[in-house]
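TA notes, week 10

Several of you asked for a full example with nothing omitted. So below is the full record: structure tokens for the whole chain, then the designed sequence directly under it. When grading your own attempts, check the secondary structure regions first.
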């Protein structure tokens, strides 16, 4: 049983490695394996170190920041561009009107809330508004209140009226004026205790105090909180009702801090609610909170909406669209930018199938385009659609170009300008299989004459695959001359997949040229 389990595990691991390697090959080299290419002699304006990549010159783009993956130019012919879906778009200057999409909750308009209370002791006798949610209008009866203090003040008012009438016949002007002041003072005390002018006029006409005074609603609205109960003892300042006018409501939405800069007070807002599918409500932003929530990294934006019919009810969930500030800027399609969080990369089309990586700074974003504030000029062409393929190839090429030469390898010391070499590389069998394979190289000068008696090496390199916990692999083979510019040798192909092959040609300790190839082991 244990032996069978070991066999099953081994088979599963082998299949997983084969599938991952196949996917890796497909991702890195979709469209075939080039075997013969264009190669140039080494540059003479560089010192010792890795040779420049012959077919993929490391030019263009911004310098690679410290700690970030190096990238090199990528050359892809038109057929392969079509296969992997690479498209080219121009950098355009357009007017950007950013839209922030978020969610919010309907709230009461705090400027339209009213607290109903009294300013004296008393007892509630009659209760006319007796449940929460009841609609009231300004002047509607709420309750009646019996208050000994209020009753005493009414009697003082009636006494002041009688005194004023008696003093009207006095020959002393000051006495008549004093009577008027008594009446005005008593009337003012009644008004300050929220008796209406009509109630005071009724007391003056009937010359009878009101045993229980009726208190009315000071504003339109709905009862959102009720404390009043029939027979209840009331203290000065005690809240009896809270009224909210719902003719206008607020919606408060959470906006991420990176989008706050695009939101302005007065910006138009549109909301939709699940309760009313297909219907939109228009409003505007009236306030942006001056702080950001540390947990959600959002700031609240308050919007105001007219609410005829009371359809927007506090507590409802709303889908919000806020139209931000507009302005012109350079833009490219959103899928052209590779954003790792630390850097933003685009691939600029240089012509003839060459794409150069370039660091850019992204600004405002919409669903379709991204504003570029630094790194691009209007009219330049960038790759879209399959930019991640280009990025993988670019990092691969840079890694191959920058690998350390084997110990004891001749350095590329400055020398006189060298002529162009034509180098071809052939594996036997083609494509090669894992294990030992034969490699053949033919070297000719620019006139087509075979180059004999040279030292030729072929280095195979496969980058690390972190997802499979596999390190980078490299092997080197020295090829012996077989005459007429041909060189042959055997080397080990460790595993299936795509290998980058570097052919170095030197003579007398001086490197004459290099060629870069690729092969896929089956």
């Amino acid at each position: 049983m244990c032996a069978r389990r070991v066999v099953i595990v081994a088979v599963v691991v082998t299949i997983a490695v084969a599938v991952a390697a196949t996917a890796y090959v497909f991702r890195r080299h979709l469209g075939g394996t080039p075997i013969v290419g264009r190669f140039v002699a080494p540059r003479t304006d560089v010192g010792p170190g890795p040779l420049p990549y012959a077919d993929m010159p490391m030019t263009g783009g911004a310098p690679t920041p410290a700690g970030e993956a190096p990238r090199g130019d990528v050359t892809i012919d038109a057929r392969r561009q079509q296969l992997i879906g690479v498209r080219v778009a121009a950098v355009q200057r357009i007017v950007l009107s950013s839209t922030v999409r978020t969610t919010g909750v309907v709230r009461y308009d705090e400027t339209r809330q009213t607290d109903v209370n009294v300013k004296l002791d008393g007892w509630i006798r009659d209760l006319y508004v007796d449940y929460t949610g009841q609609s009231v209008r300004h002047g509607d009866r709420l309750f009646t209140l019996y208050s000994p203090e209020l009753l005493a003040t009414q009697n003082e008012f009636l006494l002041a009226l009688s005194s004023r009438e008696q003093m009207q016949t006095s020959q002393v002007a000051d006495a008549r004026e004093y009577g008027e002041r008594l009446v005005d003072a008593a009337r003012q005390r009644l008004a300050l205790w929220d008796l209406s002018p009509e109630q005071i006029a009724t007391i003056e006409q009937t010359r009878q105090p009101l045993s229980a005074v009726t208190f009315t609603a000071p504003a339109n609205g709905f009862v959102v909180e009720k404390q009043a109960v029939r027979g209840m003892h009331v203290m000065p300042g005690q809240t009896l009702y809270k009224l909210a006018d719902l003719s206008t409501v607020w919606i408060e939405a959470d906006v991420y801090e990176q989008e706050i800069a695009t939101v302005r007070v007065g910006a138009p807002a549109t909301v939709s609610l699940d309760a009313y599918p297909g219907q939109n409500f228009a409003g505007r932003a009236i306030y942006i909170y001056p702080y950001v929530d540390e947990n959600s990294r959002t700031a609240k934006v308050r919007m105001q909406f007219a609410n005829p019919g009371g359809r927007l009810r506090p507590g409802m969930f709303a889908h919000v669209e806020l139209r931000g500030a507009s302005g012109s800027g350079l833009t490219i399609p959103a899928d052209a930018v590779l954003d790792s969080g630390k850097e933003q990369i685009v691939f600029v089309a240089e012509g003839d199938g060459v794409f150069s990586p370039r660091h850019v700074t992204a600004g405002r974003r919409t669903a379709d385009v991204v504003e570029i504030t630094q790194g691009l000029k209007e009219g330049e062409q960038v790759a879209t659609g399959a930019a991640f393929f280009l990025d993988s190839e670019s990092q691969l090429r840079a890694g191959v170009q920058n690998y350390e030469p084997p110990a004891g390898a001749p350095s590329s010391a400055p020398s006189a300008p060298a002529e162009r070499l034509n180098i071809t590389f052939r594996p036997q069998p083609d494509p090669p299989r894992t294990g030992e394979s034969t490699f053949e190289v033919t070297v000719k000068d620019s006139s087509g004459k075979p180059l004999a008696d040279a030292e030729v090496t072929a280095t195979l390199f496969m980058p690390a695959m972190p997802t499979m916990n596999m390190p980078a692999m490299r092997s080197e083979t020295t090829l012996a001359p077989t005459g007429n510019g041909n060189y042959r040798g055997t080397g080990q192909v460790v595993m299936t997949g795509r290998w980058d092959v570097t052919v170095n040609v030197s003579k007398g300790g001086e490197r004459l040229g290099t060629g870069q190839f690729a092969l896929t082991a089956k």
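The domain at 99-107+247-325 is CATH 2.40.30.170 (Elongation Factor Tu (Ef-tu); domain 3). Use that as a sanity check on your answer.
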